[in-house]
Amino acid sequence: MKKYFFRSQAIYLLVFAFINFSSGALVLSTEKFITGFSDLPIMPGMQELPDANISFDTASGRIVEAFAKTEQNGENILSFYKNVLPQLGWRVEKDTIFVRDTEILILDLRKDRDSVIVQFSLKPQ
Fold first, then answer.
1. Which spans in the chain are helix H?
2. What is the pTM of this model?
3. pLDDT tens for residues 66-103?
């Protein structure tokens, strides 16, 4: 009798864990990425400016330019990307420069009245 009780509790725990893991994965999968980048998340509250984006492949690698606008300050923007990008395999080279494999990502922040325009530039090293 005890054997079946413990087995049923274990099954309930596994089902509970699976449901919680699945819902967490669902939240991660709904995260938005910047157009032209397969794994560069857009900061919450940031709006992409897709009309200015360019993307193409060259013999030495891909080149991507994307722009986004936010009312966050530069410090918050850099803090967000310095925390998120290493989780995606990027290494912080300098404040606004990140390196992964043979690619370099540069963030250029420009003040525009009450907001900041962020230019994301990806190119081969």
1. 2-29, 74-84
2. 0.73
3. 999 999 999 999 999 999 999 999 999 999 999 999 99
Strand partners of residue 119: 67, 108
User: Which sign, positive or negative, has the C-alpha torsion 92, 94, 95, 99?
Assistant: negative
User: What number of residues does the chain have?
Assistant: 125
The amino acid at residue 104 is: I
**Cα–Cα distance between 110 and 106 in angstroms, integer?**
13
> Which residue bears the tokens 């494999």?
101
Distance, in Å, from the CA atom of 10 to the CA atom of 32, rounded to the nearest integer, reads 36
| Backbone φ, ψ for residue 95 (5° rounding) | -50, -45
Element (H, E) at 124: strand 115-124
Tokens of 11: 């099954």
Extents of the domains making up the chain: 1-30, 47-124
